[in-house]
Amino acid sequence: MKQCENTSINLFFNRNFSDDYFFNRIYFDNENDILKSLIFLKSFLTLEGISGYLHLKNETNYLRKQFKKSNFIYVDSIYTLESPTKLITTTSIDTEKEISVTKINDTVLLNIWTNIFCQSFNIKDHCPFMEIVNKNKQKFVFLLATLKNKNKSKSKNKENKNKNNDTHNGGIDNDNIPVGVCLLFEKYGCLGLYCLGTLPEYRSRGIAKMIVKTSLQIAYTMKYDKIFLQTFQNDNYIDFYKKIKFKVIDKRKIFQIN
């Protein structure tokens, strides 16, 4: 985080994710700070070689012109949503029997968690995320979703092979396939849900909904009556969250130097 002199602008950036506008973001407290700082931001970000993204809540025609003049372009919007206070119902009892969501802290399972997360979001370089996960395993609540394997082999050779694999899977047996993840993080008196993802080949099976439901159950045990999350417009998840009764409480437009 870097704070600009004589303004109330906060810059958050991580060089490991230089092109990610969740990890590299700039928040403005008021419009005056925006106008005073566009030139500084442009020179600072260019000099540092980072793709800082401006998160702006209230965009006016005048600000839009100033952004265009300073060569900042709109790239996406980010939504903040809050959960309903009642538990989310899954699609069927069968779905609940097939999907299991558990808290994990074991190093091997956290490595599996990271692999599922990176595959879910098509991230090629797993190493930075492995480091983040291992550093924060006491701070975050990690959830791993598994799906019952209906196509498990009956062959003895494969069973023996699977038994060997179990020793490397932190206790996950061959009856269950790791398919989805999320983490919960307490900050500013709120509980946030982050990194919700499922493997592409297992989507549309109620896995994400089950993960969110379990997250809410855990939130209640932690004395929270709701959870919060953020999602990007370009990811097209807004309709999913609205279907499970999440409510949009904030929206910000995101701009980047062209």
Compact description:
This protein has 258 residues and is an alpha+beta fold.
Protein described:
The protein is 34% helix and 29% strand. It starts with a strand and ends with a strand. With 258 residues, the protein is α+β, with helices and mostly antiparallel strands. It is built from 8 helices and 11 strands. Mean pLDDT is 79; it is low at 1-7, 153-158 and 160-170. The chain has helices at residues 31-48, 61-69, 93-98, 107-120, 127-135, 156-166, 207-221, 238-243; strands at residues 2-3, 9-12, 25-28, 53-56, 72-82, 99-104, 141-148, 176-187, 190-198, 228-232, 247-257. An 11-stranded mixed sheet has the order 1-2-3-4-11-5-10-9-8-7-6, with helices on both faces.
Distance between the termini: 23 Å
* Helix run count: 8
Q: What radius of gyration results from the CA coordinates? A: 21 Å
Give the beta-strand count.
Answer: 11
The strands making up the biggest β-sheet line up spatially as 1-2-3-4-11-5-10-9-8-7-6
Q: Mean pLDDT, nearest integer?
A: 79
Uncertain residue segments: 1-7, 153-158, 160-170
- Morphology call: globular
Instruction: Tell me the fraction of residues in β-strands, as a range.
Output: 25-35%
Order of helix and strand elements from N to C terminus: EEEHEHEHEHHEHEEHEHE
Largest sheet: 11 strands, mixed
Structural class: alpha+beta
The percentage helix is 25-40%
List keywords for this structure.
alpha+beta, 11-stranded mixed sheet, 34% helix, 11 strands, 258 residues, disordered N terminus, globular, 29% strand, 8 helices, single chain
